[in-house]
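In this supplementary section we document a worked example of the pipeline. Step one takes a protein sequence of length 370 as its only input; no multiple sequence alignment statistics are reported here. Step two produces a three-dimensional model, which step three serialises into structure tokens for compact storage. The input and output of this example are shown verbatim.
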Amino acid sequence: MLSFAVLATDKNSQARRGQIISRHGTIETPVFMPVGTAASVKSLDGLDLHALGAQIILSNTYHLMLRPGDELIKHLGGLHHFMGYNGAILTDSGGFQVFSLSARRKLSDHGVLFSSHIDGSMVELTPERAVSIQENLGSDIAMQLDECPPANASKEEVAIAVRRSIDWAKRCLSARSRDDVAWFGIVQGGLFEDLRSEHVAKLQELPFAGYAIGGVSVGEAPEDIGRVASYTANQLPTDKPRYLMGVGTPADLVRGVAAGIDMFDCVMPTRNARNGQLFTSTGKLLIKKAVNKDSDIPVDAACNCYTCRTFSRAYLRHLFAAKEITYYRLATLHNLSFYLGLMQKIRSEIENEQFSKTAWLERLENKIQE
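The serialised model returned by step three reads:
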């Protein structure tokens, strides 16, 4: 179903180089997972993802439940066949939507009742329903349904979310009917280390294939994200993969790797690409700036992606200004290449005992190119 092995560790941090064996291939860790919420990494297809070297992507249970429907996807051969992607797929359970759609939902111990953002119809998501949907999708890694409280929640509110998430974890595991889908538990606890420890201890009693750190991309300060992620990672078992949900910037990934995290996802590279911000080895590039109007150089001379090998900044700026669809594909290819290339370099450095969190952070200052 799923196996994980640590191949190398860093002597100066908690960073580790690992390998996950899934139904749809080997995943080299630390790994970044491009986000394909609605069975599509926006503007890209399976061939693009393969060319980029994406080993695993993320799709979302809540969104696919609403449209086109998990039963339809099952009827059409499962999510891999449906979207023409033969790499591994992780599906998020909808727990983040419990947070992000708080104005459209009613929450109870039984589950969540949502008002659909598509047509306003009432839709129920329970731990059992989350299992059914993800088994219909046929994902390689599936996430338990959890309650993700906001960053400003009180300790009492967070404690309730932890208790509820533990109960939902047990219900998710009891509802399984497929043995070829690997299930991850999700650790909540907000900014409270004692609640994090309590949740980790309870989850370790359950037969999960891996563990995720949730509730750290819902409005916290960057220093709090780093503290909570590092603390929680150190509480988790060493023989199972660790996944930091929804984080983040390239610098966040480096900090997460140094804390012992194996898996990451974030919409930042794809969303920022569409909004005109490109990641480069010398800082962030805002393609709309006038200085790029007649620039014949690539986005990043140090990058070997298709976009940088083929097109100039001037051309990309023209496409962006004209709102041409081609821009979104080329910019997304570049930003994902940057993220995936970053993780590939980090894996190599851990193997060769050359990984330096400090050196990477110095290179990844969030400076904007003039």
